[in-house]
Amino acid sequence: MNLKNTIIEAATKLFARNGFEKTTMEEIIRKAGCSKGGYYHHFKSKDEVLESIIDNYLDKLKEYFKRLVIVEYDKFPDRFNQAYAFVTGYKEKQLEDWSDIKNTLIFSGNERALRSLNRKFNEIVNDVYYQIIIQGLAREEISIDFPRETAELCTKQALWIYDAARKTINDKDSLECFYTLLDYSEMLINQQLGFKNGQIKYKDCSIRYQQKIIMMYSLHEKEER
After folding, report:
1. What sign results for the dihedral spanned by CA atoms 14, 19, 20, 22?
2. Contacts of residue 88, Cβ cutoff 8 Å, sequence gap at least 6
3. How many CA atoms lie within 13 A of 223 on its CB side?
4. Where are the alpha helices (DSSP H) in the chain?
5. Are 167 and 215 in contact (CB under 8 A)?
6. pTM for the whole structure
7. How many Cα atoms within 13 Å fall on the side-chain side of residue 59?
8. Dmax of the chain from CA atoms?
9. Which phi and psi (to 5°) does residue 98 adopt?
10. Which end of the chain is more exposed for a tag (fewer CB within 10 A), N or C?
């Protein structure tokens, strides 16, 4: 492991244990076992380290999507549904890792870090939808006029579903809206991509994610009591 990665790993552990604000650069340097010069050769501030942690946090998502896009034997709906299933699984993993994520990212003045994480996540998801759509056009599996705009629509729809799932935590009325949104999303994206028999599916993954949110929220409430 090179020095830069050693520093990132040390900072990740310290941020998760102590929080971003309470962790000093001196502690990171000591944990990494490096000199100040070695630290400042790679990072000018804690913020830069945090940015690298965010990038690393999304690397697995990027790598999986690269493999997903080049799969040759799957049909278009399978690749599309696999993409949504993986992103949803990634969101579930965030719920499981929430304690560490909270300590690392939830701090005063953290808006920039959270915006950066959300922006990069959205860009990754949007890019894979675009690549899958372009691949589908090249193989003549689909026929649409606006591939980039359609990819953006698919991304926005997925994010809307995740947001609606979170709203069901404290609002029972939101659960009915959530299920209605799933029906609407399946109808909308199937129509946009030219499928009439419901080959694009959101429900199973989305319901599992929503139930995981409720379960994790209940666990956190019990721990805080």
Report:
1. negative
2. 162, 205, 206, 208, 209
3. 7
4. 3-18, 25-32, 36-42, 46-70, 76-96, 98-105, 111-138, 147-167, 172-193, 203-224
5. no
6. 0.78
7. 7
8. 62
9. -60, -35
10. C
Give per-10-residue mean pLDDT for the chain (225 aa): 87 82 89 91 88 80 70 81 89 74 61 76 90 93 95 96 90 88 96 91 94 80 57
How far lies 90's CA from each of 7, 64, 125, 209, 219, in Å? 25, 11, 11, 10, 19
Cα–Cα distances in angstroms (integers) from residue 224 to residues 102, 218, 220, in the given order: 14, 10, 6
Dig out the tokens for 14 from the structure.
């310290």
Token duo for residue 128: 């894979």
Residue 223: exposure state from Cβ atoms within 10 A (0-12, 13-18, ≥19): exposed
Answer for the pair 153, 186: CB distance below 8 angstroms, yes or no.
no
At residue 224, what is the residue type? E
Q: Look up tokens 């790679």; give the residue.
A: 42
